[in-house]
Amino acid sequence: MIIRKASDVTPAVLEAMAATPDPRLRAVMDAFVRHMHAFVDEIKPTDKEFDRAIEFLNGIGQATNAKHNEAILFADAFGISTLVCLIDHARQGRSGTDVALLGPFWRLNQPKTANGGSIVRCDTPGEPLFVNGTVVDLQGAPLAGAEVDVWHASPGGMYEVQDPGQIEMNLRGKFATDAQGRFAFRTVKPAGYPIPTHGPTGDLLRAQRREPMRPAHIHFLIHKPGLRTLITQVFVADDPRLERDVVFGVTGDLVGDYRAHEGGAPAPDVKGRWHSLDHRFVMEPGESVLPHPPIA
Q: pLDDT tens-digit profile of 140-154?
């Protein structure tokens, strides 16, 4: 088609893609072109603004490396990741534990750790936290042999891949549930933290005068053949930013019961204040696939 006016462009592109043999790809790209062209028509960018947008997209790629995934960060900070999670959860009629976004810091080969072991692998100041989890099916029956990946930021607000003061795999572990579906570990109570702001996502947040903070939480990824992989987070109830999560990831069912205690800790080396978290995770039948790790 020879283009004679702006309104010719969209139908020309749609016609060019019409022979795409994969029906899902054809439907996705058809919607993408229609919505993106409508967006461009609505905001009517100048050439200078279009150049800046291309620079922004290039910057996402340039800011991504083995320890940082800027594309995931951008999708998180503008609610896309959470929207995908919730739409997929509703589409599949899920009735187990609420899902949450994977985030940019999961690693595939986290160290296997014995039940009850510690994931504090170097000097990490913070109040001790003892976590007891139970994994069950929709009928409440315990699930033995489920693989549970756990990871969280330090009380200083950084994951170990961001912080040269932490050793490799600090505050990460991989557990297997026992015959009663239980797993347990020791760590330190996490704190809220800012998402990385050194790349184009941070530039855009500053331009919008948005706070880059996440409320304190622990990530859990639970995998067992024959069951849908569960990716979720458990948030600290008294964190003041629960309603202002920069990635819009907090749902009511994901707020955990982190309890403070004085004395009587389950480990003899712990004196004074410590915390506990007891949490139940419900898995559903479905596809047991692991996601692609956002960082190496």
A: 999 999 999 999 999
